[in-house]
Specification:
By secondary structure, the chain is of the alpha/beta class. The chain is 38% helix and 18% strand. The N and C termini lie far apart (47 Å). Ligand PBG binds next to helix 6.
């Protein structure tokens, strides 16, 4: 090099582990994570989900055993998905006071009063056709479905949920849920809305886990078209205007630009969902020895946080928290 004085020696601060630690811009912590759980009927059930190694279908009586290590590791919250005993066209399991998620919420709050229990609020796990709402003449109805979502939200709050997280993507659901919660004395319960949720192939393993794949058609009439980012900002703006306390971008990995755009535009707390397909890819490649699974996991979670997420919903939560805390 002709003029050594002009060489910028970026490597100086990379030479020692201590120096790298000092200049690290993004740090993951167990309290960034929200741990998703799948609750099923029965007792003593702990059945691994095919495409999600390390993730289980759990009966209500097995939940506490699964959650205890998460709590000990400092993970502040879980999000619950329920697979009901039976499904019908009106998704009645979603707002049954004795429904699977309602029972799971009560059990968890009894065991871990400090744990934040988030209730995913959608109808797709409860409808016989697997759609997120009421279907008439092949059309997924908006307002009729929103009315049922509001009922589901109230019953989840009555069971003791700390946060309601509507994941349906129908119009007006945040306003309807807010009004219903307020009317029933739950003005203090926050709404974390899945505000920018895309029609993504990365939900594949989840639909197997939740037995919620649509029997016909798809979710493209309500979930977002993957090429759009400005539309995500409009969705988020609407949900904030309707009363959302925090918003979510989903999926995370293929939508880091959306997370970044949302972070730059809005001051509201932002969550990102590192979804089932993103988890399955890492696990499958690691199983074959094609990737270092732990490093891939940490790199992905760090990227999601670096993009601007305050909270990360991830099936890796416990594994990542163990690595972070050395426990
Ligand atoms: C709907 C819901 C879905 C996920 C979370 N909530 C599935 C869907 O929209 O089809 C996906 C989560 C994941 O893939 O990990 N209740």
């Amino acid at each position: 090099m002709s003029n050594m004085q002009e060489v910028r020696r970026h490597r100086r601060l990379r030479m020692k582990a201590g120096l790298r630690t000092m200049v690290r811009e993004t740090a993951l912590s167990p309290d960034d994570f929200i741990y998703p759980l799948f609750v099923v009927p029965g007792s003593s059930v702990r059945r691994e989900i095919g495409a999600m190694p390390g993730v289980y279908h759990l009966s209500v009586d097995r939940l506490a055993v699964e959650v205890e290590p998460a709590v000990k590791l400092g993970i502040p919250a879980v999000i619950l998905f329920g697979i009901p005993e039976s499904k019908d066209e009106a998704a009645s399991g979603a707002y049954d006071p004795d429904g699977i998620v309602q029972r799971a919420i009560r059990a968890l709050k009894r065991e871990f009063p400090e744990l934040i229990v988030i209730a995913d609020c959608c109808l797709c796990e409860y409808t016989s056709h697997g759609h997120c709402g009421i279907v008439r003449d092949g059309v997924i109805l908006n307002d009729e479905s929103v009315a049922l979502l509001a009922r589901a939200a109230v019953s989840q709050a009555e069971a003791g949920a700390d946060v309601i997280a509507p994941s349906d993507m129908f119009d007006g659901r945040v306003a309807a849920i807010r009004a219903a919660l307020d009317a029933r004395g739950f003005a203090q319960i926050p709404i974390l809305s899945y505000a920018a949720k895309y029609a993504s192939c990365f939900y594949g393993p989840f639909r197997e886990a939740a037995q919620s794949a649509p029997a016909f058609g798809d979710r493209r009439s309500h979930q977002m078209d993957p090429p759009n980012v400005r539309e995500a900002l409009r969705e988020i703006e609407t949900d904030i205007a309707e009363g959302a306390d925090a918003v979510m971008v989903k999926p995370a990995l293929a939508y880091l630009d959306v997370i970044r755009a949302a972070r730059q535009r809005f001051d509201i707390p932002l969550a990102a969902y590192n979804v089932s397909g993103e988890y399955a890819m890492v696990k499958a490649a690691a199983e074959r020895g094609w990737l270092d699974g732990q490093r891939a996991m940490m790199e992905i979670l760090t990227a999601i946080k670096r993009a601007g997420a305050d909270m990360i919903l991830t099936y890796h939560a416990v594994e990542a928290a163990r690595l972070l805390t050395g426990q």
